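G., the chain you wanted modeled:
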Amino acid sequence: MTSEKKLRVCEKGHKFYKSSDCQSCPTCDKENKPESGFLSKLSSPARNALVHEGIDTLQKLSKYTEKEILKIHGIGPASFPIMRTSLKEEGLSFKK
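Predicted structure as tokens:
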């Protein structure tokens, strides 16, 4: 059973189709993607989820356990190698 994609319009007027309830606009996501830093390496859903939770630096990320981060909607297991590597490069790690 496939979900039907519905036309959506973001607050900036961009039109896009989504089959989920996710309101994230692909055009806005591309415009807002950081050029550097660990957030620039993550997928849009993962990046948006972290930013929505106020986690926009590696220092803030290091205050959470992997289990806590995985509970955030939009974060999947594929994001963890990127986050772990980024933390390690700065001498940080997830909270134990």
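Helices lie at 26-32, 38-41, 44-52, 58-61, 66-70, 80-89.

Shout if anything looks off.
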